[in-house]
Write a structure and sequence with these properties.
Blueprint (H helix, E strand, L loop, with lengths): L7 H16 L4 H11 L3 H15 L4 H6 L7 H13 L2 H58 L5 H35 L2 H10 L6 H22 L4 H10 L4 H15 L4 H14 L8 H10 L2 H13 L2 H57 L1
């Protein structure tokens, strides 16, 4: 059962149907049975049957989910644990469904912004490789037979053509080996941490990833607090929903600060900002404070502080989530309109240089004849 293919869309449908029945007061086993017969999707039927069989054999929902790590994330399992502890399983299923829908919507926006430029790039690269490996050699043969002196640019392009034809296979092997090595290295905790930290520094893409993480943080922390979950437990659950080791480490540090008696706004970096404003010497902790402020912008800690002072923390987090969503939408729209002309101009320039290099000797021949 662990090998079952279960897409995000199927997961959303399963949880939505299951959660609606639980919220209607139907017992879990009966709800799973109804979900099975209501759905025409084979995978949802298999999942419903698997859940029903496992629960009837004495397992709880958490144990069932632990046996399906590729379908249910640590965040899902933590939420199910909370649902069983509080008796609010229907509400938890609704929250998980909403989270999946929001994540799916955000990822769809990013993919839609990138798919057309990426398609242009793939086609353009294929066209350039075809010209360099098939067209250029034939033109080179014509010039060799004509004993034409080739200008430096033409010699350079022909040299690249020779390299691609003679060493192209080794280049492809090296590329495949590099990608394979990266995936193996990605499993190393230290490498993953550094990768997750550095990728946030990329222009534009890094900002989108950072805002995506902050949306998850603010939206679901607000949702959990509105559900009556204590801040410590809420942060722990939100941490399991982070897909970035750099942020996970910082949330661990925030949890430690809160357990030590600090407020959430102080733990998010507000304390560092206030001490800097007062001109205090931070000392050895400054590097850690700077990392915290790097992860959580000043406006977030300030908004959280206002929420703490006014008793509307969850509401302020919701407002910040809306703001970050708007920022991401604006960035994605700008990215889509900006990348497309850059790629077209860039590829057009490369193809233009190749064509010019190919035609230069021909023009020289015409000039000599005249």
């Amino acid at each position: 059962m662990q090998k079952i293919h279960f897409s995000r869309k199927e997961k959303i449908l399963f949880l939505d149907n299951f959660g609606s029945l639980i919220n209607a007061g139907i017992p879990i086993v009966k709800a799973l049975q109804i979900t099975y017969f209501q759905s025409e999707n084979k995978h949802i039927q298999e999942m419903s049957a698997y859940f029903k069989q496992a629960i009837e054999s004495g397992q709880n929902i958490i144990q069932v989910c632990e046996g399906l790590p590729k379908v249910f994330s640590p965040f899902d399992r933590a939420m199910f644990e909370m649902g069983e502890a509080t008796g609010k399983m229907g509400q938890v299923l609704t929250l998980i469904t909403e989270r999946e829908e929001k994540q799916q919507d955000l990822e769809r926006k990013i993919k839609q912004a990138l798919i057309y430029p990426a398609s242009i790039m793939v086609v353009a690269i294929g066209m350039v490789v075809t010209i360099m490996t098939y067209v250029v050699p034939k033109i080179e043969k014509i010039y060799q037979d004509s004993h034409v002196n080739l200008p430096p640019l033409t010699q350079f392009i022909i040299g690249i053509s020779h390299f691609l034809r003679s060493e192209g296979i080794y280049l492809a092997i090296a590329l495949i080996a590099g990608i394979t090595g990266f995936f193996f290295a990605f499993k190393n905790p230290r490498f993953r941490y550094e990768f997750d930290r550095r990728i946030l520094s990329l222009p534009i893409f890094g900002d989108i990833l950072r805002k995506k993480i902050l949306i998850v943080f603010t939206e679901f922390l607000a949702t959990l607090l509105n559900s009556g979950i204590l801040i410590n437990r809420s942060l722990f659950i939100v941490r399991t929903g982070m897909d970035n080791r750099y942020y996970e480490t910082e949330i661990d540090a925030i949890l430690s600060d809160i357990k030590a008696g600090k407020s959430l706004s102080s733990a998010l970096g507000g304390e560092y900002i206030e001490r800097k404003i007062r001109g205090e010497v931070i000392g050895d902790n400054e590097i850690g404070f700077k990392r915290r402020v790097d992860c959580f912008p000043i406006e977030l800690s300030m908004s959280v502080k206002i929420g703490e002072q006014t008793g509307s923390l969850a509401r302020m987090l919701e407002k910040m989530a809306v703001r970050y969503n708007k920022d991401v939408d604006a960035t994605i729209k700008g990215l889509s309109s900006m990348i497309e002309p850059i790629i077209i101009v860039g590829i057009g320039g490369i193809v233009g240089v190749i064509i010019m290099a190919i035609m230069l000797p021909f023009f020289n021949m015409v000039n000599v004849i005249h």
